[in-house]
Amino acid sequence: MANIALLNRCNLRCPYCFASSYTGKEREDIDIDTFMSLLEFCQSDGQVGIIGGEPLLHKNISAIMEILSYDRRFHTVTIFTNGIFLDHVAEFLSSPVFSLLINVNSKKDIGESNFNKLRENIRLCLGIMPRDKIGLGINVYEENQDFSDLVSIIKEFGFRRVRVSVVIPNDKSEGGIPYFLRMKNTLLDLYRQLKDLGVAPCYDCNAIPECVYTDKEKEYLASMPFANMYEREIFLGQRSVCSPVIDLYPDKTATRCFGMYGSGRVSIEGFETIDDLKNYFFKEIDCRLVNIPACNSCKDCYKYKTFGCFGGCLCYKDGGKYNEESSNK
Ligand code: SF4
Ligand code: SF4
What we know:
Elements lengths: L1 E4 L26 H10 L5 E5 L9 H10 L5 E6 L16 E6 L3 H4 L1 H15 L7 E7 L7 H10 L3 E6 L9 H22 L2 E3 L12 H8 L6 H7 L11 E2 L4 E3 L10 E2 L6 H16 L12 H4 L24
Parallel strand pairs: 1-2, 1-8, 2-3, 3-4, 4-5, 5-6, 6-7
Antiparallel strand pairs: 8-9, 9-10
One iron/sulfur cluster binds next to helix 10.
């Protein structure tokens, strides 16, 4: 699924924001004609993500939501939002095309009043949309992170699934595997709390490779609830791979994914369809990076040999440091 960035502004300043290299540099919101041309460009996917910055800040967000709610080329439109302005678009959310991925930030990071607004908007959306159209996400970005605000939202509204994003630091000098090893205890703390609540975790990308965990930790993770076998396999690190997502920007440029914003950004003008662009990024980026081992153990690992594990995000291999530190193997 491709994503269209409506703008690069955000009302929040989250400390971990992976978009910080993007937000703030270009001030223009996407214009409607450009938005329509990007929809046409990615129509063959049948689904599209709407991202920012915070996409609901777009000055013509009502017009954009109306266009999306009537566009029959797309069966699913996912809005990636911090949730604070969802009440501004409530009138459109009853359209079955929309899904939400609401990023739950803590009170510490966004302040009590924004957090309360987020909570009220979740309540509002649950009154409009089916529960399975509303996803919650948590960004894990610091050791010993406090997850109590996420837990309070899960308990209050009865969510049963949470998307976990292990934030890729802007400074990749540490290397992927040492970063995962350093963050592991914080993540295990989150997973224990989710398990106690009967909540299934999932990743969308940057899945932690299996070798980061000890056998005992793997046994524990395997006992968690999962929404399906595919998510279980990825969560347990049995597959840590990704393929080009394609993020499209208001100036009609594109990147393989958001993590690659700082490198490999191209104009879409030379490409006829989204599939041409995916093939281009696959050849130019994936083929160049997947053979680079993530750690010393990779070359003896069947997952490395069979393209079953990239060792987490490819960004670590694209200008980041390829670490020599071994995993738990
Ligand atoms: S391929 Fe490398 S990072 Fe992945 S599980 Fe094997 S040793 Fe670990
Ligand atoms: S390269 Fe990194 S940011 Fe991009 S899709 Fe893969 S894991 Fe995600």
